[in-house]
Amino acid sequence: MRKKAISLAALVYFLAIGAATGQDNNYNFTVQTLGGYTTPGVVPFWLRSNQFGSIPLDGASLSFIGAARKDYDLSDKLFDWGASFEGRANLGQESNLKLIEGYGKVRLGIFELRAGRSKDITGLCDTTLSSGSFSISGNSLGIPKIEVAVREFSTVPGLGQLFAFKGNFAHGWKGDAEVRVDGGSEDTVIVSTFLHQKTLYGRFGKPSWKIKLYGGFNHQAIWGDEDDVYSHDYTLSSLQAYYYIWLGKRYNNGDITGTRIGDHVGSIDLGLEYNFDNLRVFLYRQNFYEAGGLAHLANIQDGLNGISFEKPKDQNNQGLWNKIVFEFLYTKSQARELWLPTPMHYENYYNHYLYIEGWSYNGKAVGTPFIASRDYTRSELPSSPHDYFISNRLVAFNIACQGSVREYYYTLKASWSKNYGTYYTATLEEQSEIMNNPGAYDFFGEQDQLSTYLEIKRQLKNGLNLGLIGAFDAGELYYNSFGLFLKASYSFNLLKISKHL
Fold first, then answer.
1. Are strands 211-223 and 188-204 parallel, antiparallel or unpaired?
2. Structural contact between residues 71 and 92, judged by C-beta atoms closer than 8 angstroms
3. What are the tens digits of pLDDT across the range 403-430?
4. pTM for the predicted model, two decimal places
5. Euclidean distance between CA atoms 262 and 255, whole angstroms
6. Number of neighbours of residue 40 by Cβ within 10 angstroms
7. How many angstroms separate the CA atoms of 154 and 161, rounded?
8. Distance CA 217, CA 198 (A)
9. How far is Cα 235 from Cα 311, in angstroms, rounded to an integer?
10. What stretches of 160-230 show up as alpha helix (H) in DSSP?
């Protein structure tokens, strides 16, 4: 921990020196402190979800957060650089220190090279108020990676700004993972795992048009040390394995038949934007895939559906609300609906027959927080020992709003869900179609859950903000709980301060 603290301090010092000698005002710093209380042993859903791993301790706690950031220059420089750091220290019944964000980046034209841990959301959605993208929602700490990206939509030359695209290609280091060997036996081994990621999104419509269409896909995969996972019939080198990962190609040799190397997660997304004179409306749909059912439209019922209403930036301080988001999430089908049979295995979202903790990082879901792991759910709920995420069949509604009343700014979130466990704990009729031993792990039933969140803050003079944060859970999936925190933050720019000295 001492070495980590020294390295973080060095990064902040480097940014401070740059701010003191730089020619622009893109060096920004923020310090925050939070003090409060949650129900002992429980942190409410919206205090721990989609926070990029920046989570308070349960019970009484005090937190200190420091952030330093150098953004790109707003002018059209061909070459520029940037960096970001955010760290959090929690004090309470225990203590911890987390690197929430730490990366460096350089830009050449529209292309960016970035390395480190960053706050990422992958998929078409409203990035500030969404309940969470299926692939990467910001629910966990960022997986350290190096990537090449076109970060913002860039028009295709020669087509009159009619088409634009963005995307990335990344390699990450996920760390050690416990994996079942030989196709899912009870024996396990610890392996080093990596992240493969690529995305490509397009936009149709000129920047001046009122209507624009969006579409694209994202693909993530966990992989690594497959020769330790399979004791025989595995002959791929690391380079060959990466080729299979990149394409999502199935491997067949001997007893290994029809197997995709690694754990794959992704979505195919569609969106529509319409700009009224005083309102931006954005509709989006994420279609999920893991095991291949989407290729047969077998799980087409599942998806994240959302609509966002947002006022123009110059009107954000006028009226009761600035942005409202409504979302509907459905994941019950999982490619096992009898109306459309498929040769593929059903989509047991986020769980994997080899990777014991599935699509998680440091114990938390990388994607939507509504898919619940056993770490947070009520202990009496039935579950299969093979599932790390014990409830991935659900129906959820989410509403979120930001606005202001006089000089007080607020963020409100409210979600309600019906949760049905997994197919291992589904109804006997549902299990009998796909399970060898239906009823072996009891039945999950239908568990209702309500979770709410409210943050109120007021901006004072010279970058000082004071706020109050509250959250509440009531239902049958999570333990009933509440949390209440006082928050103070101060943001400043060293170059601006130096000009006044």
1. antiparallel
2. no
3. 999 889 999 999 999 999 999 999 998 8
4. 0.92
5. 17
6. 10
7. 9
8. 9
9. 57
10. 226-229
